[in-house]
């Protein structure tokens, strides 16, 4: 049975009718490049005349896209390449417009989106990444190290909408966030019983920032000769004390003899780290925090400011000692996203998001089984020669392949190998 453009299979009443050839038109169609050379197919496209209505029509070409200028396999190839290359580069390579490439890209992303399922994790990570001069929301499964979503912004309403799109969002038990009130209240309003945990690395980051501000202020007030003594001071002072080499410890202690205020600021930073590293439980952590507050000199406004911030989030900060989860993997995702943005100048937010979520082998896909799906009886299952079972699906009941997330570890490895 023939296939005709715009119609598909013939209607039953048209079967057996004599559709006479009307003319043959030569059509040039682009195909996938071979060995770096453009490939063009010359197709003799037949046109027929209907014996009943006298109208003419072309036969349908199964391998050619509906626009008639490229093959379907080239469309699939372009869809994949659009996640890796700028649209204009692909357009130049295949002699098509960049708007056509974008259309194929958008069709691919729309298809992936329709098959994608967001499942709420037990431990949800919420953070942000600065892309295209805008703060974007990044959502992760912190227990299984999976990227779940990247949103156009990180506003409170967007955070709430994203969480509510997740299946089973009411069952979120823990959310790890930084010290932005929008994240905190978005989670609390939706899942009031969830434990909100402030990421400890953000707490330490604040302490590092306060130390660095004091270091800069002290250094500015020194003579050039004294400033010369503080060579590579930022690198040494912001390094964890247990990671310092013997020569760095000697240099640090020498500085502290000459600049005692620098020593006070340094040990305030390390005392914040010790709250996490040395506290046996939540009670001891609270005690160490109280002693840390009392030890801040009045003139250290930088530490006084972060003291207020810490107190505003005290409950969430010390929830860490009940549920020790962090946003470490979420932070690594942010670094990868920023590197991708830098490598692909001109990538829009949509392309960056699609590239991370759908464009790599780090994307995890799992079958979705419908609860009403029918299954074959076990005594009718087919066994392969090696003894393994081969599933038998009933027509129309095959499981749908859905995207459930992107593995952070695999994504990082792909990027390091240059395969991203």
General description of the model:
Residues 124-355 form the Transposase IS204/IS1001/IS1096/IS1165 DDE domain. Residues 60-109 form the Transposase IS204/IS1001/IS1096/IS1165 helix-turn-helix domain. The chain is an alpha+beta fold and 420 residues long. It has 4 domains: 12-114, no CATH class; 123-196, Nucleotidyltransferase, domain 5, CATH 3.30.420; 200-321; 340-416, no CATH class. Helices cover 44% and strands 19% of the residues. The chain is built from 16 helices and 12 strands. It has helices at residues 72-81, 87-94, 98-114, 156-164, 181-190, 200-220, 224-229, 233-237, 246-258, 260-278, 282-294, 301-312, 314-318, 328-343, 349-358, 408-416, and strands spanning 20-34, 37-49, 56-58, 123-131, 134-141, 146-151, 174-177, 195-198, 363-368, 382-383, 389-390, 400-407. The protein has a 7-stranded mixed β-sheet, with helices on both faces. It has a 3-stranded antiparallel β-sheet with strand order 1-2-3, with helices on one face. The protein has a two-stranded antiparallel ribbon with strand order 10-11. The longest helix is centred in the middle third of the chain and has 21 residues, at 200-220. Mean pLDDT is 81; it is low at 1-8, 375-383 and 392-396.
List the domain count as a whole number.
4
Question: What fraction of residues sit in β-strands?
Answer: 15-25%
Order of helices and strands: EEEHHHEEEHEHEHHHHHHHHHHEEEEH
Question: What portion of residues is helical?
Answer: 40-55%
User: Helix count, per DSSP?
Assistant: 16
- Summing up helix and strand content along with how strands pair, one would put the structural category as alpha+beta
**Unreliable runs:** 1-8, 375-383, 392-396
Principal-axes geometry comes out as elongated
Order of strands across the widest beta sheet? 8-7-4-5-6-12-9
How far apart, in Å, are the first and last alpha carbons? 45 Å
- Cα-atom radius of gyration: 31 Å
Tell me the total number of β-strands.
12
Largest sheet: 7 strands, mixed
